[in-house]
User: Which sequence fits this backbone?
């Protein structure tokens, strides 16, 4: 026989159940009723999420405790996640609100919360001789997980050093592009490999029984990183430079530059595997560290000196900057249009994008945004991990050049 909450039926709680049992469940207080009922459900084996009792309390405060149907469906909607749990919920509802077997002092159960640090090397604490009666729940947290989401500007020097160590785990990939060189094909290809075919025909008296083929080769697409080291980027510049070091040492065909009032190539300095030595060498090589910002002029130097040489042609160009520019925004827009015409994709990483209520209203950011394919955050370790995944993903979408034409 189907229970009151069986699928496809309109469940009805027992008549008069609220009038008999609600008083002992919390004296009409929706919060106490919700917490006590959630304990009954968990004791019955129902998996109640941590935030579900709070949602149930809000629902009870909205519908009140006077209607059995309202109370039943408020709990059914907030505490039950699977259809197979409805029968358990109905039984617990009758026992709780109807007073069937409800303990006299259930609302006095003491719940002890033990907070444990998520350290794999830590040893569990020795059990005490006497334990207080009640429900003991252990919650674990990870300091590394919290630090991954913390804004670099809010980190202490110790936390910033730890965040830089976490960035060492980031793996920078990237899409591949077709190469002009051809490579051997395992099976059939687009072009015959005459040299291999003739060489193998010598084993069969000159008869080419097995033909060999060539196919289009592939190579990693170049990644160009342009990091803003001006005064407005001071809270983020060193952490972002650590990301540049991870990219340069972890993947071939990566070029790194700093931009501020001038352009500085730091690829060779960041090639050292020791991160402290690499960052120190890069800092010494940058003359405009924490100085002014002239993004348009710096991008113009990059386009003229390095972009023409092929660094930006067909490459993934990543600009890490907050967009604050003291130069002419028209110059920045012109250079961004020039860069977007030769690059495969242009990604702009702005640490301020994660700020609540942020809008790209500053002149530099507003001038550059029409020529950007992806506009992402870059304020934390987690956002830089998302950037690394974005570099790997290469959506084959047509790029709209109607707005970007200059």
Assistant:
């Amino acid at each position: 026989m189907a229970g009151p909450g069986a699928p496809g039926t309109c469940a009805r709680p027992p008549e008069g159940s609220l009038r008999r049992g609600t008083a002992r469940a919390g004296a009409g207080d929706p919060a106490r009723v919700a917490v006590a009922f959630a304990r009954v459900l968990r004791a019955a084996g129902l998996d109640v999420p941590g935030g579900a009792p709070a949602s149930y309390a809000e629902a009870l405060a909205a519908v009140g405790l006077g209607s059995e149907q309202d109370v039943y469906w408020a709990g059914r909607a907030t505490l039950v996640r699977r259809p197979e749990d409805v029968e358990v919920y109905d039984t617990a509802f009758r026992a709780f609100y109807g007073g069937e077997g409800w303990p006299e002092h259930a609302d006095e159960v003491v719940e002890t919360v033990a907070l444990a640090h998520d350290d794999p090397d830590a040893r569990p604490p020795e059990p005490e001789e006497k334990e207080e009666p009640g429900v003991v729940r252990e919650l674990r947290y990870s300091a590394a997980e919290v630090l991954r989401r913390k804004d670099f500007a809010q980190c202490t020097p110790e936390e910033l050093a730890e965040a830089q160590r976490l960035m060492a785990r980031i793996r920078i990939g990237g899409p591949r592009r077709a190469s002009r060189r051809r490579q051997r094909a395992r099976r059939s290809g687009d072009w015959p490999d005459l040299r291999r075919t003739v060489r193998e025909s010598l084993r069969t008296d000159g008869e080419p029984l097995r033909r060999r083929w060539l196919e289009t080769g592939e190579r990693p697409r170049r990644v160009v990183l342009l990091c803003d080291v001006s005064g407005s980027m001071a809270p983020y510049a060193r952490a972002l430079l650590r990301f540049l070091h991870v990219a340069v040492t972890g993947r071939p065909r990566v070029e790194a530059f700093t931009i501020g009032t001038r352009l500085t190539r730091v690829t060779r300095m960041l090639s050292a595997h020791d991160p402290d030595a690499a960052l120190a060498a890069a800092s010494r090589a940058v003359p405009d560290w924490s100085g002014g910002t002239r993004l348009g002029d710096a991008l113009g130097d990059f386009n003229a000196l390095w972009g023409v040489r092929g660094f930006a042609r067909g490459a993934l160009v990543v600009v890490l900057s907050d967009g604050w520019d003291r130069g002419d925004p028209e110059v920045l827009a012109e250079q961004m249009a020039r860069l977007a015409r030769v690059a495969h994709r242009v990604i702009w990483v702005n640490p301020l994008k994660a700020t609540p209520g942020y809008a790209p209203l500053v002149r530099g950011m507003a001038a550059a945004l029409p020529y950007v394919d992806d506009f992402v955050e870059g304020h934390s370790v987690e956002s830089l991990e998302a950037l690394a995944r974005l570099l790997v993903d290469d959506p084959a979408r047509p790029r709209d050049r109607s707005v970007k034409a200059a």
Summary: Residues 337 and 406 are 6 Å apart (CA to CA). The two ends are 74 Å apart (CA to CA).
